[in-house]
């Protein structure tokens, strides 16, 4: 199983951005604990015994987030650049064949990580290989039975009803996000929502790559990744394939791509500090800030507050905010990393050109920021809470709340959390303050203070 993780989810601004796409937002809940879309899909795959042979396909920026939420053992096939689903699936297919040793006859499933489905969806997923075998198709897809007309999804149009002993349809055509009138007509024709879930044999796609004059081995494909056409797998392959079948699924499935669709799956109208009056029926607040946000006697609205901005929208209009975001979006101020999270509090520049960037940093228990140095900036850390281990130029010390650590330019250093989460305020000071000003170094077990 290849799990696709990509995109930035701008329809879920201001919480979703290029540093934290929508699938990483911990807004859903499971057993009273926060859960992201990614964590939900992974948990459901694990409960269906499908996680052991799952691989993630994503760009390098998201690989760290996946390992942070799923665990360091997650197998991630990293794209050299983000170039849509055809290059991503092609690279993952070559990896499975050349690196993981899968044969050309191996059946591989493809699934995005940002869908929302019931547990029965994953049991249904097990039937795709049998459909591929039984139908003699090159690609077998899963299609969800629509619950209502929608212009948010693509539709799979079947050619005929399945025979009594066959659970699948032959595919006639695809319709990409039709208007509501056309959606109603398609549903009457028996069309299904396109879930973006399908299966094929590795050799099928490897042959297509060779036919297109593209490398089919992993090393060459990775090296020449920028030469691959930046297009979707649907356009490049699925819509060009004549032998297609689709397995209908009649259970719960949705794409949580807008705030209106997402709040429907939230267990409470209020997430974070705030208040919603009784007259504000069908209103929701999602607040990541530490100050309260309230709705007083205004129904059917969604208020979302985070470090990158504040959104107030009518529920039904929340589908159209992507264009607005393009006009107002600033550089992301909040970022999740494998080791924890950080929020930019301020960025100031003096007349002399000296810059000061102040961040709030939280390192998760047992994790650390790798051993590295900066050439142009000084860092000042003020410990707020937790216990940490700090190493500067090979000298290690334990830090606690109230202590201040100064890291001069050119000093090799790391910091980690040894008792609970470690929170500190970091001030970066220099005429050049840049994320590219970093050199990383190997270090034996940074959290083992006895090895230092």
TrEMBL record:
Pfam families named in the record: MannoseP_isomer, NTP_transferase
Q: Where is the Mannose-6-phosphate isomerase type II C-terminal domain?
A: 337-442
- Record keywords: Nucleotidyltransferase, Transferase
What GO molecular function annotation could you give as one example from this UniProt entry? Answer: mannose-1-phosphate guanylyltransferase (GTP) activity
What Enzyme Commission number(s) appear in the record? 2.7.7.13
The Nucleotidyl transferase domain extends over: 2-266
Q: Where are the transmembrane segments?
A: none
What is the name attached to this protein's record?
A: Mannose-1-phosphate guanylyltransferase
């Amino acid at each position: 199983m290849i799990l696709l993780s990509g995109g930035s989810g701008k329809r879920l601004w201001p919480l979703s951005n290029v540093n934290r796409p929508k699938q990483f937002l911990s807004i859903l809940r499971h057993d009273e604990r926060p859960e992201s879309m990614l964590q939900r899909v992974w948990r459901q795959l694990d409960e269906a015994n499908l996680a052991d042979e799952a691989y993630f396909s994503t760009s390098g920026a998201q690989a760290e987030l996946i390992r942070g939420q799923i665990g360091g053992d997650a197998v991630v096939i990293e794209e050299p650049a983000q170039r849509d689903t055809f290059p991503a699936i092609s690279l993952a297919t070559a990896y499975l064949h050349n690196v993981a040793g899968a044969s050309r006859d191996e059946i591989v499933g493809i699934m995005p990580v940002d869908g929302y489905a019931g547990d029965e969806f994953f049991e249904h997923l097990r039937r795709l290989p049998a459909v591929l075998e039984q139908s003699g198709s090159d690609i077998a897809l899963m299609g969800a039975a629509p619950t209502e007309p929608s212009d948010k999804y693509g539709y799979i149009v079947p050619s005929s009803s399945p025979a009594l002993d066959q659970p699948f349809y032959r595919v006639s055509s695809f319709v990409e996000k039709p208007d509501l009138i056309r959606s109603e007509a398609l549903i009457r024709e028996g069309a299904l929502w396109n879930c973006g879930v399908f299966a094929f044999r590795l050799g099928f796609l490897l042959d297509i790559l060779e036919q297109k004059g593209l490398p089919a081995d992993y090393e060459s494909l990775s090296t020449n990744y920028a030469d691959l056409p930046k297009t979707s797998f649907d356009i490049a392959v699925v819509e060009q394939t004549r032998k297609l079948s689709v397995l209908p699924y009649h259970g719960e499935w949705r794409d949580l791509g807008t705030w209106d669709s997402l709040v429907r799956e939230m267990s409470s109208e209020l997430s974070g500090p705030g208040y919603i009056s009784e007259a504000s029926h069908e209103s929701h607040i999602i607040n990541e800030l530490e100050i309260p946000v309230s709705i007083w006697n205004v129904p059917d609205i969604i208020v979302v507050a985070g470090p990158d901005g504040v959104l107030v929208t009518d529920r039904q209009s929340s589908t159209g905010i992507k264009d607005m975001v393009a006009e107002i979006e600033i550089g992301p101020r909040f970022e999740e990393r494998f080791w924890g999270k950080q929020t930019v509090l301020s960025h100031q520049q003096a007349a002399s050109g000296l810059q000061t960037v102040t961040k709030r940093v939280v390192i998760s228990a047992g994790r650390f920021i790798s051993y590295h140095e900066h050439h142009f900036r000084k860092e000042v850390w003020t410990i707020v809470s937790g216990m940490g281990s700090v190493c500067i130029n090979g000298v290690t010390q334990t830090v606690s709340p109230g202590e201040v650590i100064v890291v001069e330019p050119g000093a090799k250093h790391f910091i980690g959390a040894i008792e609970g989460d470690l929170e500190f305020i970091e001030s970066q000071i220099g005429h050049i303050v840049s994320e590219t000003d970093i050199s990383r170094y190997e270090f034996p077990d940074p959290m083992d203070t006895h090895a230092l």
